[in-house]
Design goal:
Function: Catalyzes the conversion of glucosamine-6-phosphate to glucosamine-1-phosphate.
Number of strands: 19
Shape: globular
Number of helices: 14
Catalytic activity: alpha-D-glucosamine 1-phosphate = D-glucosamine 6-phosphate
Largest sheet: 7 strands, mixed
EC number: 5.4.2.10
GO molecular function: magnesium ion binding; phosphoglucosamine mutase activity; phosphomannomutase activity
Keywords: Isomerase, Magnesium, Metal-binding, Phosphoprotein
CATH class of the largest domain: Alpha Beta
Strand content: 15-25%
Radius of gyration: 23 Å
């Protein structure tokens, strides 16, 4: 059997790759591994289980709950709650584990199962590997009073909303906000958090039917939000993804504000408030050079990681940093959350608009984005990308030519015979020129 866990839990086409049988087996194995790491030895372990609104989440939730309860775990069923809300409630309820059933920004037919350890923490690789090893192993099934009990935690969502609203000191009266809930898990929590803080809220794509999650909406399709903000005369808009761990913003003119700009705004806010640990922000190698220049101008340091929020989180933990994220809008504010939280991000951005008296367009202007060009070169020997002397010489020459005004990055794909060539430069034409040249060198030197 190949590795089941990917970079963010177990995902696949629901009822084909991710079946009810697999969900039961995974939950039993997770109960054994995480229960033993928690309170299993001296009391019945507990778990919280939540999902996004996609249709397949209904039968997968039933399978997960059945697997956990059959293994002797008491289950608090949360219903439709964002991934970060599940993490928060795992910690709040002192549960031994949390389970989120969601495929995030993926299309509706996909789904996923993400396990969380005590405190709402993402699992380390070795814990995921331990769960995989215990799949379908023989085990002693509890009976009678020793099987797990299942109940619904109706107050969970309210507690999460209270946490979001309590994370800022500012009130949001006078601010008109449009929220694109992606017909996903943010549909109740995000509007309620903003209304609690006094904002005028218009929610769009907030009528999930189990089939329309992420469909032409949310952070992967912000066009409707951009139009709505302008047409409604709103001050700002925020777009979430299906499980609401990402957030992108839209200013009053309908311009998109991406994760790099959001990171810079939040970094300067945290620096001013004395909350930015070690004056450092963590982002991936794909973050725009404009972010690095903006942070440098403010006397802050940028630490870059491999692509993926798990690598951002690992670097934050290792260095004791409190802010990190990706261009996609997956922002981790570890003072307030153990994972990326789209609504939390949006609340803090709106609060900064209020306390500074500046519109989102002005706040976002701290980052001057350099043109960024990405070329995927297929059918090449990616294993030689880091060692081929001709290619490395051309990269060095291009890097020297761009100097402090640009950047070159070559990344072999993790799953395909593809090398990704990314170039940033002062102008789009120069970025295209350098990227096309390096792509040609990759094709020639790494040909199969």
């Amino acid at each position: 059997m190949g590795r089941i866990f990917g970079t963010d839990g177990v995902r696949g086409l629901a009822n084909r790759d991710l079946t009810a049988e697999l969900a039961v087996d995974l939950s039993v194995a997770a109960a054994h591994v995480l229960g033993e790491a928690g309170a299993f030895a001296d009391q019945r372990p507990t778990a919280v289980v939540a999902r996004d609104p996609r249709a397949s989440g209904e039968f997968l939730e039933a399978a997960v709950v059945a697997g956990l309860a059959s293994a002797g775990v008491d289950v608090h069923r949360l219903g439709v709650v964002p991934t970060p809300g599940t993490a928060y409630l795992t910690a709040l309820l002192a549960a031994d584990m949390g389970v989120m059933i969601s495929a995030s920004h993926n299309p509706m037919p996909d789904n996923g199962i993400k396990f969380l350890a005590r405190g709402g923490q993402k699992l380390a690789d070795e814990i995921e590997e331990a769960i995989e090893r215990r799949l379908a192993e023989p085990w002693d099934r509890p009976t009678g009073a020793h099987v797990g009990r299942v109940g619904d935690s109706h107050a969970g969502l309210g507690a999460y909303v209270k946490h979001l609203a309590g994370s800022v000191e500012e009130r949001l009266e006078g601010l008109k906000v449009v929220l694109d809930c992606a017909n996903g898990a943010a549909v109740e929590a995000a509007p309620e958090a903003f209304r609690t803080l006094g904002a005028e809220v218009v929610a769009i794509h907030a009528e999930p039917d189990g089939l329309n999650i992420n469909e032409g909406c949310g952070s992967t399709h912000p066009e409707d939000l951009q139009r709505a903000v302008v047409e409604l005369g709103a001050d700002v808009g925020f777009a979430f993804d299906g499980d609401a761990d990402r957030c992108l913003a839209v200013d009053a003119q309908g311009n998109l504000v991406d994760g790099d700009q959001i990171l810079a705004i939040l970094a300067l806010r945290a620096q001013r408030d004395g909350r930015l640990a070690h004056d450092t922000v963590v982002a991936t190698v794909m973050s725009n050079l404009g972010l690095s220049l903006a942070l440098d101008a403010a006397g802050l340091t940028l630490v870059r990681t491999s692509v993926g929020d798990r690598y951002v989180l690992e670097a934050m933990r290792a260095g004791g940093f409190t802010l990190g994220g990706e261009q996609s809008g997956h922002v981790i504010m570890s003072d307030f959350a153990t994972t990326g939280d789209g609504t939390l991000t949006a609340v803090h951005l709106a609060a900064e608009m209020v306390v500074s008296g500046r519109p989102m367009s002005d706040l976002a202007a701290v980052v001057t984005r350099l043109p960024q060009v990405l070329v995927n070169v297929a059918d090449v020997d990616k294993s030689r990308a880091a060692t081929d002397p001709v290619l490395q010489g051309e990269i060095a020459a291009a890097t020297a030519k761009l100097g402090d005004t640009g950047r070159v990055l070559l990344r072999p794909s993790g799953t395909e015979p593809v090398v990704r060539v990314m170039v940033e430069a002062p102008t789009e034409s120069e970025a295209n020129e350098v990227a096309d040249h390096l792509a040609d060198v990759v094709r020639t030197t790494l040909a199969l």
